[in-house]
Design brief:
Elements lengths: L10 H4 L6 H19 L1 H12 L9 H8 L3 H13 L12
Helix pairs in contact: 2-3, 2-4
């Protein structure tokens, strides 16, 4: 689907697959964890504890978020941590569905 006059508009929103409030909130939590990992200090310690938690019952735990979004928690954790350790940029741009 062409974006035509609106190149900044995510095509997923146009075709009805875009904004789901719960998904956007969970995505924001993961993005915040990534930013906290970059900050270091206590922020990084808290972010690492969040990523390493085995909690699954709490809806906003890392494992529950991954499960809801269809990500493998172990692979996601590894990808985030390796990118941070290697100084690679993690794209936070939302992809069209």
């Amino acid at each position: 689907m062409s974006r035509g006059k609106f190149p900044g508009v995510d095509a997923a929103y146009i075709i009805g697959n875009g904004y789901i409030a719960e998904n956007e909130l969970m995505r924001a939590i993961i993005l915040r964890v990534i930013e906290d990992l970059k900050k270091g200090g206590e922020f990084k310690e808290d972010a690492l504890a969040f990523l390493d938690s085995d909690e699954e019952e709490y809806v906003f735990s890392f494992r529950a978020i991954c499960g809801h979004l269809g990500f493998d928690p172990s692979k996601t954790r590894s990808a985030i941590l390796s990118a941070i350790d290697e100084g690679r940029r993690i794209s936070t741009r939302r992809r069209a569905a």
